[in-house]
Amino acid sequence: MAEGSTSGLSELPQHIIHHILSYLSAEESTKTSLISKSWLSACQTSPKLEFNPHVYFSRKLNPARFWDWSKEKRREKYEEFFQHVKKALKPYSKQGLRINTVNFTLEATRDSQWNPLLEKCTKIAVKNGVRNLDFFIPECDLPAIVFRAKSLVDLSVREGNIKRMSVGEIICPGLRKLCLKWVSLDVEMFNNIIESCSFIEVLEVWYIQVFDDFKVTKLNNLKELTVRLFENQWVKVEAPKLELLTCTDDENWFEGEDGDEEDRLTCGIRFPASHYQNLKSLLFSGIGIDDTFFIDLACKFPNLEDLMVRYCQELESIKISSQSLKRIELMDNKKLVEAQFEVPKILAFEYSNVCDIIPRFLFATASSCWTSSICLWCMEHVDVSWFVKLKELLASLFQSEVSLDIDFICSVAFDLNEIRDIVKIREPQEVQKLTLHFDWMFSLEKGFSALDGLFWVCRPKYVNTEWHDSLEKNDAVKFLYDTLMFRRTQDQFQYSLQSKFWQHDLKEVNIEVLDRSICMIGDRVNFTTKGKNEHQQEDLDWENILNLLRNDGSFGTMVYFKLQWLRVMEKDGRNFET
């Protein structure tokens, strides 16, 4: 950094520097100490303290070498870190400097020898008005003084031991957020914490092994609750101001050797109160709810806006009626075959499943502008009957803008002649986007059957698939190019033996190449596209598009075929362009 650019930074008052450091990691803060003496002093007295042996060792040596050392050598290095922590705490102990945040991580050690150091650090932090404590302390004891910290606002403990204390010994009147993950504590101590810290607004309880049935009650200010359960654990929730609730089990699903689900006990949640007036968002994953849960949904949660139900294997036929719901997600509820919805304010509907069941949906009332996203993984043979069910599914979503994502990890067979004997079904549904994935055993027969069936079902504005330059072959991309761009040979099109029934309705095809990127939304991985690049069909042959893809350094690039269809109306067995 140039001298002129640091002069202004060097003159900043210490409280401003401390504020800046509060947004930086420990490693980043250390680098700023090189700016000037005032920054060095501020780093040494920052109200945010982070102690992590892994980070400390990585600054001095290659972390991979650490595990090659003998037990004695590692203990020597831990002693070095021990002295580092004690030195860092000295100015706070002697000068009474304010401490806002302490992050103590001992993931790499897993040794109770750290208890004395942890106790010393916590005592100094509590004495100096700590507000946020974040401990990752496997096999260590959480210092009891934590629960006598009147200034404490946010407490997070992972893999530590929490010993029992009485209600009168717990004095944390300011505690607003509590996260307990994989910790060792009994139900009585948990109840004592809840009863003593009645102003908690955010509570997370993850995988407490010894819990059986436990309660989250007497928290009249609780707004957000996340509970992750082991098998056969049940939680009772009664919180009048609760706005967001997430309840999941320890495993989404698992299968036996023969592919059948193993017999296992379920976990779940109980709602003793008749109304949860403020609840806006509800997420269930892998817990024991059945079809009856949804009967009084509108009455129990009158203002619910977001409903996500994942991996709940007891659901078969559900009916959801709500005047407030805006977003619904149904994901991998394997036995679900039917769902009815009366949701006039719906804005977004998502359905995905890894099995080959295509459920029946009925939307009795819905808003005039909403989107539907359907994602299907086909694991077994797909035939004409599967496409018929898919057509019925899309027909039930005709009021919405539909995106369809299909992964064919199986054989595909579709014969238009078999359809002619079926009672007339609705015309192909308009779909905004059709995303196709094929397994590595791609074949032309599989590709043609898939396209024939899907274009009998729907008319997508975009057909897209993923390009991986790291693969030797991208047969699916080449197949889509050859098949969809077939209309370029206009003179031969009408007489070609390769022509398909849907190609007569395909007016124009353009190609767009977009970069695919990954982003996290909550606990889910989402994919987005960026960098739009459109090319007219007459400007691109296969070699040109191949060079374009490779020049982009493309891994995870999406190839979009933009389709323009003739609107065709069937009448007396003949087609008319409209």
Automatic annotation (TrEMBL):
SUPFAM superfamilies: F-box domain, RNI-like
Domain F-box: start-end pairs: 6-39
InterPro entries associated with the record: At1g61320/At1g61330-like, F-box-like_dom_sf, F-box_dom, LRR_dom_sf
Record Gene3D superfamilies: 1.20.1280.50, Ribonuclease Inhibitor
Name of the protein in question: F-box/LRR-repeat protein At3g59190-like isoform X1
Lineage: Eukaryota, Viridiplantae, Streptophyta, Embryophyta, Tracheophyta
Gene: LOC113737774
